[in-house]
């Protein structure tokens, strides 16, 4: 009986993920030696996980020197690093090319998130 319940839980979880119930995520395409990636890592990365934006769009890092993850195969990372792409249900919603500095990063990200109806602080 416990096995049946466990299998049903797995099936429900898979069904929910297949229906696009995934939250937004902020994908950072980066590569080793990128000066602007290092600047983002110094200025934003230490605090990002504590922001409302991270609750709406958790940060996911993708190293361009490795094969792309299968779930991001349809998203072009572009030529510049870092490139930040907001992804919802497997589709690109918006992007920030390069790192514009800490004074502009959150403003640009919030503009993208608000266009999806996923403004930080809203459930």
TrEMBL record:
Cross-referenced Gene3D superfamilies: Glutaredoxin
Extent of the signal sequence: 1-23
Keywords of the record: Signal
Domain of life: Bacteria
Name of the protein described by the UniProt record: Bll3507 protein
Organism: Bradyrhizobium diazoefficiens (strain JCM 10833 / BCRC 13528 / IAM 13628 / NBRC 14792 / USDA 110)
Lineage: Bacteria, Pseudomonadati, Pseudomonadota, Alphaproteobacteria, Hyphomicrobiales
């Amino acid at each position: 009986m416990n096995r049946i319940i466990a299998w049903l839980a797995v099936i429900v979880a898979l069904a929910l993920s297949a229906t696009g119930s995934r939250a937004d995520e902020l994908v950072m395409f980066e590569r080793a030696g990128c000066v602007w990636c290092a600047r983002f890592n110094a200025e934003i990365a230490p605090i990002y996980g504590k922001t409302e934006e991270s609750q709406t769009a958790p940060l996911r890092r993708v190293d361009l020197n490795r094969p792309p993850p299968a779930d991001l195969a349809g998203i072009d990372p572009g030529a510049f690093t870092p490139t930040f792409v907001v992804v919802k249900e497997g589709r690109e919603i918006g992007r920030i090319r390069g790192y514009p500095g800490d004074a502009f990063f959150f403003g640009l990200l919030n503009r993208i998130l608000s266009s999806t109806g996923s403004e930080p602080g809203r459930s």
